[in-house]
Design a protein that fits this description.
This protein is of the alpha/beta class. It has one domain: Alpha-Beta Complex (Protein-Tyrosine Phosphatase, Chain A). It has 6 helices and 5 strands, in the order ββαββαβαααα. A 5-stranded mixed beta sheet has the order 1-2-5-3-4. The N terminus is likely disordered.
């Protein structure tokens, strides 16, 4: 007889305190039934989805246990990952500094958008280039596979010193040229 059990919905640890998952695991993490021995304590949930209406909700009575942050981002080669990367990294770093629970980065399937942000935070925190960060993240989450547009943007982000703005706050010329040529939103 075939087994009817399925794997538990547990996010994958990318680095201490930072986890990646799909939307179903994010919903499970927010559930009052989630806490159990061996499961990470998640407090911060970063949702990278097309629309806010897709974001998992905190169940009634659990509001004090979680901080949700939504960033609209399509899983599309022309979606502008770099325009939202600072916001995503700031949320992750702020959560890490509080030391009161882990940060879950999720998108719909846990493959492209969340993986792209996991690669970016790895690049930033470990001061490594895109290929090294991608190998690192795939070593933790083999299904990580940012779409080709996100890959090109992360490679550019590395070349730009992980900042698309000049010291005076203007967008860098190389970023603007790339954005126009790649038809990034």
């Amino acid at each position: 007889m075939a087994s009817t059990t399925s794997a538990p919905l547990i996010p994958v640890s990318i680095m201490p305190g930072i986890y990646v998952s799909n939307i179903n695991t994010a919903r499970a993490v927010l559930s009052p039934n989630y806490p159990a021995p061996g499961r990470p304590k998640i407090r911060y949930v970063l949702s990278l989805l097309n629309e806010k209406s897709q974001q998992p909700l905190i169940p009634a009575g659990q509001e004090e246990n979680f901080v949700l942050h939504f960033i609209p981002l399509r899983d599309d080669e022309t979606a502008n990952l770099l325009a939202v990367l600072d916001e995503a990294i700031d949320f992750i770093v702020a959560g890490l500094k509080k030391k009161d629970g882990g940060i879950l980065i999720h998108c719909n399937r846990g493959v492209s958008r969340s993986a792209a942000v996991a690669v970016a935070i790895s690049m930033d925190e470990m001061n490594i280039d895109y290929p090294t960060a991608m190998r690192y993240v795939r070593g933790k989450r083999p299904r990580a596979n940012p779409n080709p547009g996100f890959v090109r943007q992360l490679e550019l982000w590395h070349r730009l010193g992980r900042n698309i703005r000049t010291d005076d706050g203007k967008l860098k010329d190389e970023y603007l040229k790339f954005k126009a040529e790649a038809k990034i939103d």
